Structures are given as structure tokens and as C-alpha cells.
Amino acid sequence: MSQGDDHHHGSDPNSPEIRTEALEDLLVEKGLIDRARVDALIERFEHDLGPMIGARLVAKSWLEPEFREKLLDDADQVLKDEQIQGAEIEHVEIKANEPGVHNVVVCTLCSCYPWALLGLPPSWYKSPEYRSRVVREPRKVLEEMGMSLDPDTEIRVWDSSSETRFLVLPERPAGTEELDLEALTQLITRDSMIGVAEVKAQ
Amino acid sequence: MTGAEILDGSVAAPPRDNGELVFEAPWQSRAFGVVADLVDSGAFSWNDFRQQLIEAIQTWETMASADQPPWDYYTCWVVALEQLLFNKVLLDPTELDLRSNEYVERPHGHDH
Prior knowledge:
The complex is a heterodimer of chains A (202) and B (112). Mean pLDDT of chain A is 91; it is low at 1-9. In chain A, helix 3 (51-63) packs across helix 10 (181-187) and helix 8 (128-136) crosses helix 9. Chain A is globular, with a radius of gyration of 19 Å. The longest helix of chain A has 14 residues, at 16-29. Chain A has helices at residues 16-29, 35-48, 51-63, 65-73, 75-81, 115-118, 123-126, 128-136, 138-144, 181-187, 190-194; strands at 92-96, 101-106, 154-159, 165-169. Chain A is built from 11 helices and 4 strands; from the N terminus they run H-H-H-H-H-E-E-H-H-H-H-E-E-H-H. Chain B is mainly α. Chain B has a two-stranded antiparallel sheet with strand order 1-2. In chain B, strand 1 and strand 2 form a beta hairpin. Chains A and B meet through helix 1, helix 2, helix 3, helix 7 and helix 8 of A and helix 1, strand 2, helix 2, helix 3 and helix 4 of B.
């Protein structure tokens, strides 16, 4: 990935910067896209969508057993009830970690990801290494990412598709019994909802 | 770039808002926004785009290592977008080539 050359144009007409600029201008001229709408969409994905939306669901499910049950049983209905909508969440399944079972999410073919719950995926999620290796050797990959699991823990790898997106419901860490929804939400990271990290009490 | 670097996130952008920077360069955000707007306006569906993106990624993955450029997700994204627009006859390849060449010829310090 290039660093530091992002702000000037290359001299290569096949560079993605140049192609994108040419493409956008041509589509605007043809009336196929609208620059203000494109701006607004980028703004929305950069600022309004993000892991805080998924984190709130996780925190709520830690606090309310009934909510948790519903979320695991029929996430689509919960998202409807919570008025969470957006592209790419046609069908969501929530996979709960529990003692002896750890879940991790990947999209082996491209980059499918629950945008409306987590925002856009991080670059490592889209990398060829992660996509191929987490299926083959999940324990090793998780260890490299800083998560060592008990050898007896079963690791379930969920491959996202155009039909189904997954979100991991991480375990609530000890020492958070006094925390409310807001404080718990702050602890829950994007990585813990992909399944490559635990939630820590601090 | 090694696998470990990718996996531990050291090549990713600095963290922000319980996440990280969504786009690493302005052209990436434009390429994303253009697709999102085309989907919103019904030019094609996310699923159409996804299929094309899978193809672009597979093309990269099956390249001989001597010809394989460094991995770049948004480059695949742009390749997929171009191909889908050509397939749907919404854009002409020659037209895009011409415009791209024109932009490369611009003097430095041009204004958009």
C-alpha cells in the first residue's frame, strides 16, 4: 500500500486515482451520478456508520437477557425494531461466544461485512492473507492478532456472503458488573465483533 | 508487506471512533461513493457489483507472481466498477481511456 503519494496525481493513465477521477467526471456528465449525492454517501459511511452501532446491540444484550435471546434468534427483527437499516444487512446472524466456543467472521471471496452495524471493513479484513488464512488456520491467525485461545476452545469461522452477514457477540468481561449501557458500549471494539479480539474491562 | 503486518493492523490507518480511518486516500472514497450512488439510483445492485468485485479479486489472486502488482483492495474495486459499467453499456472503454489520458497530460497545479 502506498504511503505519502496519495495527494498528487501519478503520471500513469491506468492508475486508479486517474481512472476514478475520469470515471466520476464522465458519469456526472452523463447524468448517471450526482456529485452532491456521492459526497453525502461518502460522508455517511465515513461518519454516521461505524462499530458503535453494533457495540450498542452487544451491550444491550449483555444487560437484557431477553434482548440477547431475541438477537440470537432473529437479528433481522431486532434490527427492524431498533430502526437500524442500511445497505448490506439484508440478513444478519449474530454468533455468540461462550465458554469453549469462539466465533470469527471472514468473507473469503471479497469483503462482505455488516456495514450498517460496523461501518466499512478495516483493510486487514479485505486482505488476501486474512481471507485465506483464517479459514485454514484460525487459531494461528487469531494468535498473531493478539488473541490466544484455550487449546480446547472450538473456533467457528463464519464465511459471509451476499445473503448472510455475521456479527460476533463477544463475552462480557469480568469487572464490568457496575457499568451501564453507555459505559459498556465504549468497551466493545470493532475487532471483538469480528471475532479477532476479546472485550477488555478497561 | 508481510501477512503479520496486515494482520496486526500496522499497515492500517490510524484508529478513529472505535474503528479506523475508512479510506486511505481521497480517490478511494470517491470510488466507493460513485458505486453507492449508482446502486441507490438503480444502475445496478450491490450484488451485481459484488460479483464483479469477486472477479476482479480473483483475477489479481491468479496472476503469476511476476506480473502481480502489490495488493490493493480499492484498485480491484475500481477495476470491478469499470467492468460493470462497460458490461451494462453505461460507459465506453475508449471514452474512459481518452479522458484518463487527458487528465495525465494536465499541467501540474491544475484546478479541478
